[in-house]
Amino acid sequence: MVLDFSNLSNLSNHVSTLADLVRRPSVNPMGRDVSGPEYLETRVTDYLVQRFLDRGIPCARQQVAPGRDNVVARLEGSDGGDTVMLWDAHQDTVPVEGMTIEPFSPVVRNGRLWGRGACDVKGGMAAMLTGLDRLCVMKAKHPTILFSATVNEEFGFSGIKALTRLWSSDRADILQGDHQARELLPRIPDVAIVAEPTELNIVTTHKGATRWRIKVYGRACHSAYPERGDNAIYTSSRVVAAIETLSRELARRNPSHPCGPPTLNVGTIRGGSGVNLVPDFVILEIERRLVPGESSDVARREVIDRVRHATPGARVDHEEPFLESLGLPEDSGGAFVERLISAALATGVHAEKLSARYGTNASVLAASGVKSVVFGPGSIEQAHTVDEWIDLDQVDQAASILVELASAWSEKPARRATPRPRTRPE
């Protein structure tokens, strides 16, 4: 059966909410000079703000960059305590090139919803929004819930870094656009859940990453006289070969780590302006994934040294990283992990503690002092795929678990055995 979304009144809240999110494109340009109606998060941002206004939930926009605003909303606590629990989900998705389905026309079939972002991570966002709706209707006692919809998670983590500015900086004179958001979050949250597709398990530790651009320079000339120039593509091929060699070595380094070994990847390469010219520059984008505890500077220096040895005499410049994250240490969630496991169990879900090879906003939150875990519906194996989809039952279950966690917060958590962490591939 395929559902017609022209009439949403007969659909469950979590389904209609997810469909609303998917049909609003929020593609991350990923550093490319591209534009169009599908790029940036504005449409999702506007939808979220209107949704909270309709429900009477205080909210604010926090500008991160032109056309890119975080959304912060606050559901005031009713349990007499002063706990602030942050629920975070990023608004952006990866690009849609090569997709085999219509990316922004959500389709439901056999209990799944298809579309770009359905799994990563609009399904998790829909679960959080549905959870907030249920808490409002139930009038249940709960701690203060701070919901954040952050931008630019897929490429640079700038949205979550801007959010942490709300409690980590007193320089109000340079925090343009932060003032309203700071009124909703005047102090650091106690705990945080970051939405990512974990199949309702709990990621308690994951990798970090450092990403930067390498510029390889040559000398342009007419291709009829290539000996008069210096072909930057030839030099860049030696750069790539050196990185590939190091990548293979890293795969054998610390292979038994719960998050997997460190990795290195050349993600993009651009250069040349015409087939009849000797190219004078090439730009590569590099990603080095870090095992928790690794130094970003040391890891980056190893790459730079390898490239230098492979290209003697060449001009090769390494830009400063446009993303740096040290990963999520194992103890970042503390006792909060057990509370979330208990909430899942109370709804009939046996959640396990996992280690992950990917990175999330949780690492930035943990570095700012917030006890943080990663949790949400969907499988990481469906993220970024050409036919992305999510199991709608899991979206509903995730919402129920979040409501259970909030409504049982003032109760003493039951003691239980802790499952041994296991690793999920990215």
Properties at a glance:
Alpha-Beta Plaits; alpha/beta; globular; Aminopeptidase; disordered C terminus; 2 domains; 10 helices
How is this structure best described in words?
The chain has 426 residues and is α/β, with parallel strands linked by helices. The protein folds into 2 domains: 292 residues, 3-Layer(aba) Sandwich (Aminopeptidase); 118 residues, Alpha-Beta Plaits. The chain is 31% helix and 23% strand. The strands form 4 sheets. It has a 9-stranded mixed beta sheet with strand order 1-2-6-3-7-17-8-16-19, sandwiched between helices. Strands 9, 11, 13, 14 and 15 form a 5-stranded antiparallel beta sheet that branches. Strands 4-5-18 form a 3-stranded antiparallel beta sheet. Helix 6 crosses helix 7. It is globular, with a radius of gyration of 23 Å. The two termini are 31 Å apart. The N terminus and C terminus are likely disordered.
